[in-house]
Amino acid sequence: MITVKKDSIIEDYHGTKVSDPYRWLEDANSSETVEWSNWMGKQCYDYFAPIGTRDTDRKRLEELWNYPKYFVPKKIKDKLYYQKNDGLQNQAILFRKDNEKETVVLDPNKLSEDGTVAMTNYAFSKDGKYLAYATSTHGSDWQEIRVLDLATGTDLEDHIQHVKFTSIIWSPDSSGFFYSRFPEPGSVAPEDESNYNKVYFHRIGDKQASDQLVHEQPEDKELMFSSFISDDDKYLCLYVFLGTATENRFYLRPIDSDEPFTRLLDKSDAEYQYVTNKDTTFYFKTDLNTPNGKIIAINLDNPDPSNWEEVIPEQSDVIDFVIALHDKLVIGLLHDAHHQLKVYRLDGAYENDIPLPILGSLTDISRSKDDNEIYFGVTSFLSPTVVYQYNLDSQKLTVFAESTLPIDTSDFETRQIFYTSKDGTKVPMFLTHRKDLELNGDNPGILYGYGGFNINMTPSFNPAILRWLEKGGIYAVANLRGGTEYGEEWHRAGMLENKQNVFDDFISAGEWLIENNYTRKEKLSIMGGSNGGLLVAACMVQRPDLYGAVICRVPVIDMLRYHKFTIGRYWIPEYGSADNPEQFPFLYKYSPLHNIEDGVKYPPVLIATAESDDRVVPAHAKKFAATLMEKADKDSTIILRLEAKAGHGLGKPTSKVIEEWVDFYAFLDKELQ
């Protein structure tokens, strides 16, 4: 046992004095933090070492993971490019298929010995000669871009640094690509290293220092830019974002011009997503005054809103995405948190549905202008991604690639139910379990949720969950407010001052599972990551009596200081800021770190974070663990799992993912009674 230091820091927030005794843990490199982290690592090791189910679970998880995983292809110059993982490879490999011949284009597994360097983005030049690809090391959001010569299979000398969250957009003549980047470290104050985003053009063969500056707005240093080129190759376009706000701006200029961008949509009053354009008529998906979305047309010659044309009006279901192909629009709708596909003409006339074989989610979608085809992936809780090819002319749907699982999933089923939250709101929830499940209140359960940032929790496949189902467990996913399952109103009902609705929805989901005899509180666990880590931490603190165990992954915990770390300021539109006297009260009221009470017997909690997480820094998890260990009843179980060479989850190698689930199941096997 070590003596754990406590600071005497007290900060005044608009007249409310708040102590912060473990602020020293925010300095990851201090000797005190390193000593404390090593000590917590020893406690974690000692906790897991004697649990006898780990070897069995590891062996079975490796078996369940060992099936081919296919990704949606892209067609470039009559060649198909796609990623595939044969089974237990740490990273998926990029292949090219030409006349049925399959060739490896890029194998990220060769970029590091342990699989912790991942390819996170890639784009092909228009002429099909080059591949620009981004890599991330140890799960960092910071990435580097390199260029592969597809004819020789070797990298060029081009090397782009200081990028994250960037698009890679090749110019129509394939001479180079557009990207966005941040300042070089040391050239600005440390707190501004994720500010001053700029758009550049990189010409193949040049050094990055010679790249052409395309756009910057230093007077609005917190803005971020994402570039793309219009479907007709005539316009360079920019999305302009402030953090993670749903609302965005839209700028454009002729591709061959060096003139300033025309700020076509500059109010940040709604979401505007480019669909396509015909000459100077631009089509957008927007939620302006229509929370479920609509399609509008704006003519650049008459851009005043009074001249905007509504092409496809708002519907009862949410327009999740739209892609254009020639004179047609393929629209993905969300109906009760699962996808449906419909085809319209560009004039707004409905043509047909594209029937999906299962109740599930679209994983990705791509288009091939050459032959009027789309490719898309469909998945569900019990089906890995199946990739389909659909011809819009013949309306023919065929399977492009599908997997054979090492398990018969016909013994399991997924049901969707609707339960009532605290304020009377109906909330959907997916339940997956054995078909012969007995509703005797004695089944172990995992309740999973997220509830924020406009992110949908539609059906998705995770081979680790099959192991839980084999163990007789129930896997429940609640579609909480804060997502966009029911449009922007659903999102706004779970953000800022409405965030408590998300926690109420999740608590009500747990109560429903217990009241309907699916499980009991001693066997109910809750799980969430990132914003979902905030979710489960807040619900644990608010209702410690309701759960038998908590798995809190890469969590946001300190709601008064989250915006002071790395990119935390990006989340202010979603959460608010304690620096704002109007927003401080609701943040302080639910902040998990600041609502832990003395002497309370909290459910066993496994807090999982990673050393290289530069999105949600591990200081959140460390301060949470330290505060719980100080204040909670001494019989409370608090485990901090601090992973090396890993980040927020980006590009995590298969071996590390499996090992993480081995520990999750060891924890649940031990704690759920």
From TrEMBL:
List, for all copies, the residue spans of the domain called Peptidase S9A N-terminal. Answer: 5-401
Asked whether the keyword Hydrolase is assigned, the reply is yes
Q: Which reaction does it catalyse?
A: Hydrolysis of Pro-|-Xaa >> Ala-|-Xaa in oligopeptides
* UniProt signal peptide: none
Query: What's the Enzyme Commission number for this chain?
Result: 3.4.21.26
Report the enzyme's class at the first EC level: hydrolase
Question: What keywords would UniProt list here?
Answer: Hydrolase, Protease, Serine protease
Domain Peptidase S9 prolyl oligopeptidase catalytic: start-end pairs: 460-672
- What Pfam families does the entry give? Peptidase_S9, Peptidase_S9_N
The family annotation for this protein states: Belongs to the peptidase S9A family.
What PANTHER family does its record include? PROLYL ENDOPEPTIDASE
Protein's recorded name:
prolyl oligopeptidase
Q: Which organism is it from?
A: Ornithinibacillus massiliensis
